[in-house]
């Protein structure tokens, strides 16, 4: 825009609200009727859907996508390349890891952390104390939680039900063969830790 008055006219026309001290990155796209709260930060090339609400102090990373009608709570962190589905709710001070995918109408509770590359299904309800994520157990992030699909375990880029893992754990023979190596045993140990966590929250 050549001047601020042209920008203000466009925002008014599209019913977009950008509150004081919010930062909008280069090539970011904001849908009609969206609201960006005070001190919020929208990264370069991020996409904010129509009617989405980004609350005060929230950070939306570069290349992240926020679906239509989604709500991102105050001081929440949506990291680089993460995708938040339509009508999803991310609680205040929650963290969504890089490249994670949160399904439509899912709810991530206040203060909860979703690890990098995790895939949370539609309508899932994840709270601060009913999910587990770790980054130092084996070569990749791992996590476990319960949602509509059942007990879910993430090992690296693979997110499957617990039963699917139990039926076919050695699904990546090229990188983690069943050879009793330290690397493969660390992956198996990560899986067992995830299972122990799931068992503990069901009690």
Strand percentage, roughly? 25-35%
Number of strand segments: 23
Q: Any idea what the shape is?
A: elongated
| Rg over alpha carbons | 19 Å
Percent helix: 10-25%
What does this structure look like?
The protein contains 3 helices and 23 strands. By secondary structure, it is of the alpha/beta class. The strands form 4 sheets. Strands 1-4-7-10-13-16-19 form a 7-stranded parallel β-sheet, with no helix packed on it. Strands 2-5-8-11-14-17 form a 6-stranded parallel β-sheet, with no helix packed on it.
Topology record:
Blueprint: H1 4-13, E1 17-18, E2 23-24, E3 29-30, E4 35-36, E5 41-42, E6 47-48, E7 53-54, E8 59-60, E9 65-66, E10 71-72, E11 77-78, E12 83-84, E13 89-90, E14 95-96, E15 101-102, E16 107-108, E17 113-114, E18 119-120, E19 125-126, E20 131-134, E21 142-147, E22 150-155, E23 158-161, H2 162-167, H3 182-202
Parallel strand pairs: 1-4, 2-5, 3-6, 4-7, 5-8, 6-9, 7-10, 8-11, 9-12, 10-13, 11-14, 12-15, 13-16, 14-17, 15-18, 16-19
Antiparallel strand pairs: 20-21, 21-22, 22-23
In short:
18% of the residues lie in helices and 29% in strands. With 203 residues, the protein is α/β, with parallel strands linked by helices.
């Amino acid at each position: 825009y050549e001047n601020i008055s042209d920008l203000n006219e466009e925002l008014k026309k599209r019913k977009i609200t950008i509150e004081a001290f919010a930062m909008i990155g280069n090539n970011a796209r904001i849908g009609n009727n969206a609201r960006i709260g005070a001190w919020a930060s929208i990264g370069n090339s991020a996409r904010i859907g129509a009617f989405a609400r980004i609350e005060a102090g929230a950070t939306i990373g570069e290349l992240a996508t926020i679906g239509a009608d989604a709500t991102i709570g105050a001081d929440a962190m949506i990291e680089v390349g993460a995708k938040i589905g339509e009508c999803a709710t991310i609680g205040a001070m929650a963290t969504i890891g890089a490249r994670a995918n949160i399904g439509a109408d899912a709810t991530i509770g206040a203060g909860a952390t979703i690890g990098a590359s995790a895939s949370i299904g539609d309508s899932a309800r994840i709270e601060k104390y009913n999910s587990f994520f770790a980054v130092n157990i084996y070569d990749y992030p791992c996590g476990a939680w319960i949602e509509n699909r059942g007990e879910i375990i993430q090992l690296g880029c693979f997110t499957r039900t617990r039963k699917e893992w139990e039926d076919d754990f050695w699904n990546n023979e090229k990188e983690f063969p069943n050879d009793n190596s330290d690397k493969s045993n660390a992956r198996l140990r990560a899986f067992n830790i995830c299972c122990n966590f799931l068992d503990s929250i069901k009690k």
